[in-house]
Amino acid sequence: MAGPWTFTLLCGLLAATLIQATLSPTAVLILGPKVIKEKLTQELKDHNATSILQQLPLLSAMREKPAGGIPVLGSLVNTVLKHIIWLKVITANILQLQVKPSANDQELLVKIPLDMVAGFNTPLVKTIVEFHMTTEAQATIRMDTSASGPTRLVLSDCATSHGSLRIQLLHKLSFLVNALAKQVMNLLVPSLPNLVKNQLCPVIEASFNGMYADLLQLVKVPISLSIDRLEFDLLYPAIKGDTIQLYLGAKLLDSQGKVTKWFNNSAASLTMPTLDNIPFSLIVSQDVVKAAVAAVLSPEEFMVLLDSVLPESAHRLKSSIGLINEKAADKLGSTQIVKILTQDTPEFFIDQGHAKVAQLIVLEVFPSSEALRPLFTLGIEASSEAQFYTKGDQLILNLNNISSDRIQLMNSGIGWFQDALVLTPASLWKPSSPVSQ
Description:
- By secondary structure, the chain is α+β, with helices and mostly antiparallel strands.
- It is built from ten helices and 20 strands.
- Strands 1, 15, 16, 17, 18, 19 and 20 form a seven-stranded antiparallel sheet that branches. Strands 2, 9, 10, 11, 12, 13 and 14 form a seven-stranded antiparallel sheet that branches. Strands 3, 4, 5, 6, 7 and 8 form a six-stranded antiparallel sheet that branches.
- The longest helix is centred in the middle third of the chain and has 44 residues, at 175-218.
- It starts with 5 loop residues before the first strand and ends in a 9-residue tail after the last helix.
């Protein structure tokens, strides 16, 4: 078998192009709340959300609709504001996001805690009067089926959550300044939620759209499989519990970009391991994995100069043959060659949740490098356990515990092995230490 039987699939087994209505889901990419939080947090950073918070026009907001439009109170507000030279957010932070199921099925509730320190300058005191503000933006992720196009995920109903606003003076000063600060904080209570809704919520919605676009772009990346490539088509999204699930259809294309196989949903499926402990999972149908394995492990042949590369195996082979026919064993020289051919693509199947690979192998033993005909030829029905694991940003398939389920003598020189052939997998190949395949 070629090599160690290990190959690399690009991370995630993801791809997509045009939506095909006839496709059945052949894979499901499940994104947990941690992935959603991390991706959305990064998008908020990329959209400079904290800078938006620092630029909130606090003073203008209080002047536009002071005290709810009541004239008497409005006059009082104007008196207070006359003592304010400037008022702005000094520092702003977005704390850890929360993603949890909504009370409404098939929706996710996103909570974005906001932490700010604001300050104002007044002629009444030389220092800046600072106060701490905390609130929470809240929005809903849901499926939008109203558009004429395919179902997509959208973020809506963005606002500050009721009762989450807290404003507290950081440092107490003189009685007059403290009273002024209290009036300013009271005026911010109705103003800040409107500012968050009008200034920050559009940024949150744009950040979610960017996150969703990145996910769709991710599933458009083709996976190279030797000369072929595997692509996944996004069929539809769904929300289940606290996860986003992307249902995918799959197709196999040749080097010219022509579709050679469409995959339908199959009962058996395999869950790929998570990459570097990232809490997402990819469930792929057996047919897709089978095609990927077959495309990468194409039929091939290679030769091994046994005495030079594996001297212990060469000695064991000669001893085993000597038990059957001493003359045949004497024919094996120091340049004996073992030629291995994989004639058919491997068969991939899942049995009780465990993945296995089976393949027919032809093994030819030449007594020397000058020999034109093999001493004997064996047909071997081999199988192995298929184990997927991750390494860095790659998904690796490792074939372990390779075993020979059946060995058959196909031909031999001058009838030396006609009566008996007692070669076993252990006698042909028994390394002193385990070999990773």
